[in-house]
Amino acid sequence: MVIPAIDLLSGEVVRLYKGDYRSKTVYSSDPAKLAGEFREMGAKLLHVVDLDGAKNSSPRNREAIKRISEVLPVQVGGGIRDEETIDSYLEIAERVILGTAAVKNPAFARDMILKKGAERIVVGVDVKNGKVATSGWLEDSGADYLEFIEQLKEFGTRYIIVTDIERDGALSSPNWDMYDRIAGINVIVSGGVSCDADILRAGKYCGVIVGKAYYEGKVDLKKWLKG
């Protein structure tokens, strides 16, 4: 599945460069309208991240996300740290993404996967220099990404979104070596997609998230979404 990405910062659609909040590019001030454009292209799911929420440990853009979800189904992440927030988002989203909460409290992630269902609780694994980053990519957890993924598999996790932070927003192609080391779990490729060839290569995995490459005119999403 090709999944368009909408990253929200102060209600606007932005892309960061390698996770740096100081290097943002604004692409739209109307995320719901943009979601409608993706729907017209044939998108079935949107990847939506609340960057303010990720940085501040609690949701900041829920109303904007709700408006987006009224246009297209979403998988949403950013600042989701407790069951109350998960339940709130599951009212409007197809999937909820746990990131920092899963790294800092694996037992919580395990319980939520069992309780809410593996189809609806996705785990985001954000990698920098082989280690899992947390808190909007601003902190190094010290956890090896492969060891963490093995733990997630034991929990019954069905989907993981794996991002190489050094590739994200850089249009430098995904870190294929990193993905090839992951086995036994459904991987969604995220970070670095730069051209049609990258989307094609991602076909061996269960999904690919496309953001900046579309916004910068490097790929024709309509072709992939209709296909």
Q: Residue share in helices?
A: 25-40%
Instruction: Supply the number of helical segments.
Output: 11
User: Strand portion, in percent?
Assistant: 25-35%
At the third CATH level, what is the topology name?
TIM Barrel
Task: Output the helix-strand order.
Answer: EEEHEHHEHEHHEEEHEHEHEHH
Secondary structure: number of strands = 12
Instruction: Domain count, please report it.
Output: 1
What CATH architecture would you give? Alpha-Beta Barrel
Describe this structure in words.
This protein is 35% helix and 30% strand. The chain has a single domain, classed as TIM Barrel. The chain has 11 helices and 12 strands. It is of the alpha/beta class. An 8-stranded parallel barrel has the order 1-4-5-6-7-10-11-12, surrounded by 5 helices. α1 packs parallel to α3 (62-69).
Describe the secondary-structure layout.
Elements: E1 2-9, E2 12-17, E3 20-28, H1 31-41, E4 46-50, H2 51-56, H3 62-69, E5 74-77, H4 83-90, E6 95-98, H5 100-104, H6 106-116, E7 121-128, E8 131-134, E9 139-144, H7 145-154, E10 159-164, H8 176-180, E11 186-190, H9 196-201, E12 207-210, H10 212-215, H11 221-226
Parallel strand pairs: 1-4, 1-12, 4-5, 5-6, 6-7, 7-10, 10-11, 11-12
Antiparallel strand pairs: 1-2, 2-3, 7-8, 8-9
Kindly summarize this structure in a few lines:
The chain is of the alpha/beta class.
What brief labels describe this structure?
TIM Barrel, alpha/beta, single chain, globular, 8-stranded parallel beta barrel, 227 residues, 11 helices
